[in-house]
C-alpha cells in the first residue's frame, strides 16, 4: 500500500483544519447519566472516508446487544475506565489503550459494567452518517418511548445495525 495520489498536486493548500477544544460539550446525550456522544470528525469533513466519535459511558451498566454492520467497519479505543469489549467469541474487560477493530460483517459489542464512568473513541469507515443513530436513540430514550420489536427492527435496519 502506498500514499494516495494527490488530487491536484500543484494546488495550494485550501482545506481548513478544525480544532475542537477538550471542554466542548457533547453533541448528544443518550439517557440521563447514560452515554455522551461527541462527534469529533464528521464524515462530510473527512470527505466520507471516516467518522470519529468519542463515547463517554456513564457509570450505570449497559451497552448494545451483540450486532454487526454490513456497510462499515468500526474501531474502538478505550481512553479511560474499564470497557467490556466483545469480539464475537468472548468478552474482555479492557482498560485504557485497549482496542477492538471490527471489520464489516463481524459480530461485536461493548458494555460498561464497571459502575464507574468510561470513555472510548469510535472510528467508523467509510464515513457513514452514524450521528443520526445516536440522535434518534437519544430522542427515543428522552421521550420515554417503548418501541415494539418491529419498530426496533426498522430503526436498526435504517442504521445498518443488525442484531446477531
Search tags:
six-stranded antiparallel beta sheet, 11 strands, Jelly Rolls, three-stranded antiparallel beta sheet, 164 residues, alpha+beta
Strand content: 25-35%
Structural class: alpha+beta
Largest pleated sheet = 6 strands, antiparallel
Unreliably modeled segments = none
The CATH topology label is Jelly Rolls
Proper CATH architecture:
Sandwich
How many discrete domains?
Answer: 1
First-residue to last-residue Cα separation = 33 Å
- The CATH superfamily is Jelly Rolls
Number of helices: 2
Give a structural overview.
There is one protein chain. The radius of gyration is 17 Å and the shape is globular. The longest helix is centred in the last third of the chain and has 13 residues, at 131-143. It has helices spanning 131-143, 149-158; strands at 28-30, 35-41, 51-57, 67-68, 73-80, 83-86, 91-94, 99-102, 109-111, 118-125, 162-163. The two termini are 33 Å apart. The protein is of the alpha+beta class and 164 residues long. The protein has one domain: Jelly Rolls (Sandwich). The chain contains two helices and eleven strands. It is 14% helix and 32% strand. The strands form three sheets. A six-stranded antiparallel sheet has the order 1-2-3-10-5-8. 19% of the residues are buried.
